[in-house]
Amino acid sequence: MIQDRFDVLLVGAGAAATATAMRVLQFTSQPLSIAMVERFPQRGHGGLAYGGPGTTWHDVFNIQAGRMSIFREDVDDFLRWANDEADRRGWPDDWAETHFTVSGPAPRRIYRDHLADRLHQALDQAPDGTVLCHHVGEVHDIALADHGAHHGVQCRVQDGTGETVDRVIWARQIIIATGHEFRDLAFAETCADHLSFVRLQYSADGVARLAQIGEQDTVFIIGAALSGHDAAISLSRDFGHRGKIYMLSRHGLGVQTYPADHSHAVIQVRRPPFLDKGFVDRETLIEDVVAEWRLLTDWLAKDHPEIAPSVYSERILKAWEPYIAELIAMMPPVEVRRLLDEFNTVISNLRVPTVPYDTNATTDCDLTHLKASIDTIEPREGGGLTVRFRDDEGDHSIEADLVIANLNRETDYAKVTNPLWRNLIDRHLLATPHATTGRGVTVGAFGELVGADGEVSHCLAAVGLPREGDEIARHGRLGPFAFNVATLKNHSIATALRTVMALEGLIGADGAGAISHGAELAKQAVPEAARQAFIDLLDPAAAAMVFWLTARTRTARQQASQQLEALQRALEEKLTGLDVSDPQKARAVRACLLLEAVQRMTDVSVTPRELRQRLGLAEQDQPARVAAGGD
What we know:
The chain is an alpha/beta fold. Helices cover about 40% and strands about 15% of the residues. The protein has helices at about 15-25, 75-85, 95, 110-125, 205-210, 225-240, 280-305, 310-320, 320-330, 335-350, 355-360, 420-425, 470-475, 485-505, 520-525, 530-550, 555-575, 580-600, 610-615; strands at about 5-10, 35-40, 130-145, 150-160, 165-175, 195-200, 220, 245-250, 365-370, 375-380, 385-390, 395-400, 400-405, 450, 455-460. The strands form 3 sheets. The chain has a 5-stranded mixed beta barrel with strand order 1-2-3-4-5. A 5-stranded parallel sheet has the order 6-13-7-8-9, with helices on one face. It has a 3-stranded antiparallel sheet with strand order 10-11-12, with no helix packed on it. Strand 10 (about 375-380) and strand 11 form a beta hairpin.
């Protein structure tokens, strides 16, 4: 029998949904009922690329293992789990005997186990009476009730007998984590179902087709980003392929490689002078960006010899994030979309390099990079496919035994075919495609969906890929969003906290927080003479809230709550100008501290290791069990 009423329902159970559910369990002070509905159970916890039938043991994280903790405030958590807690039965010998280090590689397929373990731990440490249910099914519509009531989530789910049935599950708060949406490929209309065409390499069917490759077969890979390199490595390392591989991209730019001892860091650069001109035209902007880029790379080479040239682009694009957001705000949306579409692969390859394990693995391949545009792919007599493409020298064709098209996900939510999004956008007007970037949907600061009327939802939020456009426009974050754990960390924190605040009555019907900042509360309710004292008390109180939110055991939470409660009461006593009841004052202070805490926990101006220091959590660290060398 399927329970049909929950406090929280997550649409999806991949990496984004799992991380968010984990945070909801961690942040709540009261027992909750939570449901997760996933249409692809084999992708549970890990999603498309982190485990499941479509990931092999040679698919590794493109960044270092020391940067893969799902807890932004606990940078070494993944390493502790991988080295000391993971069940290595069933691992191949080379990984089973590995001691994972900060700067070293790790296989992606173990990440789903890491997330599942941490979710189960969060459930075990949640308030007594908390329930977490998993359903196999697809959510296709959401019907909102009046504010404060349960909302109807229409889905097809499997009941206890395994039969698929139509049901309505009711939930107070709904978090949408639908992951990848795939687009039709115009160049593959005649070969979409051909046995030599792999549309989705991260699937059981995709891996099965790769496994059938002949040792000397010719392979054509469309796309030179990280997924393309995954395909080449799997062919060589997993399936013994030694034939010719062509890898095509419009810009011909390959993935860069991190130094073997890479240490993650954030640099500061000057505000680009071209921002003062405003947006003139596309060509002028590109010239200005290139000129500033060259100036910064020259500066890094001269003044920062400790930084390897292969990570210049990562450091610059990270430092440019606030300026990119400023630039986008002054540009016509049509130009923003045009530039993002044209330079997406270039930006992705510049923004995030890959670890030497990946680069070394591709040396086994007979790999040729092509700078060209695809025209058509057609079946040929006798088997295989003919790939036709165009470069600066003219039209060409290659006879291929296998063509891999990578993900080619649909980023424009005006075009996605997922029935849930079509209903939310077209029928109910509860969501809107992101107008500025043409990527994802419009959301509020905490991931709340924004409807066609501009209203921020009080019960619907999104995490993960649906927020790509918002990440670009609001935060200036460019690069590969498909498997971006760094983005998921902040999404899970902010959206889970907003969900818990809504359930606790700390957020109004308009979806806005009761108090946006401590200074605002002080101005509203504290006499001017005592205002500075209130602000001074707010800092340790917000720090205590951070300790409480990041506590992952009941014992640690109880210890943190004692100091937090005392500081909260002290702040409440100073609200002499707020003419409300004591319980209302308590809610105002709690909302204020929660929002102050989330601002601190999601600060991306520093590395996670630096953030841990800034939050005052570093002194909690156990003796290091990882190799030295940064994040």
